[in-house]
Structure formats: structure tokens, C-alpha cells
Amino acid sequence: MSSAQIRLLAFIIMLIVLFFFLDLQSFLTLNYLKSQQQSITLYRDTHPIQTTCLYLLIYIAVTGLSLPGAAILTLAGGAIFGLAWGTLIVSFASTIGATLAFLAARFLFSDAVQAKFGDRLAVFEAGFERDGAYYLFTLRLVPVIPFFGINLLMGLTPIKTWTFFWVSQVGMLAGTLVYVNAGTQLAKIDSLSGLLSPALIGSFTLLGVFPLLAKKLLENLPRDQA
User: Fold this and answer.
1) What is the rounded average pLDDT of the residues 128-143?
2) 226 within a domain of the structure (yes/no)
3) Which of 52, 95, 174, 187 is deepest in the core (most CB within 10 A)?
4) Domain extent for 155
5) For the chain, how many structural domains are there in total?
6) Angstrom distances, CA of residue 176 to CA of 71, 154, 202
7) Which residue did the predictor score with more confidence, 127 or 58?
């Protein structure tokens, strides 16, 4: 590792250790959010710009460092800003945070992976260069796959940063809408487990897989030789 990589890795580790040492995860729970909803709403009404900026920074930091709490923050987006603004703000905050995690993984680990597995990854990289956007879109639509893992894994692939950004934003939009909409009815939520039913998860998965299957089907259709 270069000195720049070591410094960045040390900085990230320090922030993660501080997050748990200071017990900041206790502020990213459903019970805490519900208990503070009135106070947060009052602050939003009197300081709308500050509230939006602070929320963005917190969301980007949590997702960029791959910390637990993104689901609660997404609910908070709906509770604080409503469906339309909440979805817009969460969509950009989550995508920016995901892209930062993606870039950090690429900067820190891509060279090491290439040095060790470069020859064996050549075929994989060629395929991913061609179909990476489809794979990423599918992964983003399956809620059971941790998004932080996708961010880190994609940093080790040849997918372009802009492609990662826009595909992630589109792919995460459906799940964002579900959680932000639930956040607008925060008082009725008792746990996170019931927000995504098996049928809804299946629907998201099919929606994500369909473009990839359609592409493969079209590639394998016999071409007219006339």
C-alpha cells in the first residue's frame, strides 16, 4: 500500500471506531427516531436549510463509511421531509454515499486484487465491462443483499464511476420510495422487518433480473441469414 492509501485506511478505521466507541448507533434506531420526531420536525420548521444540510451530511457519512443505520435514516427522510422531498433527498444522499464507499474500495484495494488475481480476472472483467450495469441494477433491486457490500464489491470491478452512480440511483429508487413512504407514517411502524413483504422483494428481484434476461435472450436469438 502507498502512504496515501495507508492514511486513508487509518482515517476510515478511526471514524468507524469512534462511531461505535461513542455509541452513536444508539441514535440510529427506530425507537429513538420516534421519540424525537416532534423535536426534529420543530427544528425543521424553524431551520429548513440547516436541517436538510445536516441530514445530507449524516446520511452520506453513514453510507460512505458503510455504517449501520441507512434504513432508519431513510425512514427519517420520509418523517422529516415528506414523500416527494424525502425521496429526492434520500436518493441523492444514498447514491453519493455509496459512490464514496465505491471509490474508497477502488482506491484502497483494487491494485492489490489486480496484482494477486489479475490473470484470472481478465475474462470476468471483460464480461463485466459489457454487462456490469445490468448486474448492478439487479443487485440494487434485491433488498436482501446489503447495499454496503455491493458498494465495496463494485469498487473492485472495472465499472465506470458515472455508470455506478446513475445505475445505483435508479436501482435504489424503488426501495427508497418504500422506506420513505413508510417514514411518512412513522407512528404506525413497530419494526423494520414488516416493511418489505416477500411478495414485494420478489417483485423487485424480477424487475431487476428482467433486463438482464431480456438482453441474454436477444443475444441468443437466431439471426436472419438472408
Assistant:
1) 77
2) no
3) 95
4) 3-220
5) 1
6) 9, 20, 16
7) 58
DSSP H helical ranges for 141-197: 147-154, 161-183
Contacts of 145 (CB under 8 A, 6+ apart): 139
Query: CA geometry: angle at 150 spanning 146 and 154, to 5°?
Result: 175
CB 201 within 8 A of CB 143: yes
pLDDT tens by residue, 163-187: 999 999 998 888 888 889 888 888 7
Task: Express as a percent the part of the chain with pLDDT over 70.
Answer: 77
CA dihedral 207→208→211→212, nearest 10 degrees, is -140
C-beta of residue 69 within 8 angstroms of C-beta of residue 28: yes
Q: Is residue 121 part of a domain?
A: yes
Q: In whole angstroms, what is the distance from residue 70 CA to residue 57 CA?
A: 12
Task: Count CB atoms within 10 A of the CB of residue 160.
Answer: 12
Query: What DSSP character marks residue 190?
Result: -
Place of cell 423535536: 39
pLDDT recorded at residue 134: 80
| 205: amino acid identity, one letter | T
Within a domain: residue 225? Answer: no
**The amino acid at 41:** T
In a domain, 109, yes or no: yes
Q: What is the share, in percent, of the chain residues with pLDDT greater than 90?
A: 47
